[in-house]
Amino acid sequence: MVRISSGFFRCVLLTPTGKVLDCRTSALVLPVHDGLMGVLRNHSPMLCKLGKGIMQVRDIPEKGDAFYLIDGGFARISENSVTVLTYEVVTFEGMERQTAEHLVSRAKSVVVGGGYIRQTEQMAGDKAALLVKMGEMTGIISEE
Hints:
By secondary structure, the chain is an alpha+beta fold. The protein has helices at residues 97-112, 115-120, 125-138, and strands at 9-15, 18-25, 27-32, 35-40, 46-60, 64-78, 81-85, 89-90. It is 25% helix and 44% strand. Strands 1, 2, 3, 4, 5, 6, 7 and 8 form an eight-stranded mixed sheet that branches. The radius of gyration is 16 Å and the shape is globular. It starts with 8 loop residues before the first strand and ends in a 6-residue tail after the last helix. The mean pLDDT is 86.
């Protein structure tokens, strides 16, 4: 019999410049190097290599869900605690809606634009596509 554990565990998100997140959550989805990995309370201990993608933090008390675009790194899972070490994080949290919409709009132009736009923009095409997806997930833009 498979038993799914409910409850909360600690999640910490760190970058070279400091702590981005320290919260309790009921579920976490990490973009690992070869796909996506879900984490619930009482997950077996492990260390995993992260890829570029959207990290979803579910059911944060008094906050709801949160989304972070991360760019590689490592995650350590142990004793109902997850520590994510990543090189770079992009989030819409604390950002004015107009600023977030502008960022997603710019990312859309990179995604649909040809090589010229991609070369002139500092944002890489794959990162831009993930920003557009995160914009849809957070409701910054409507899904098409």
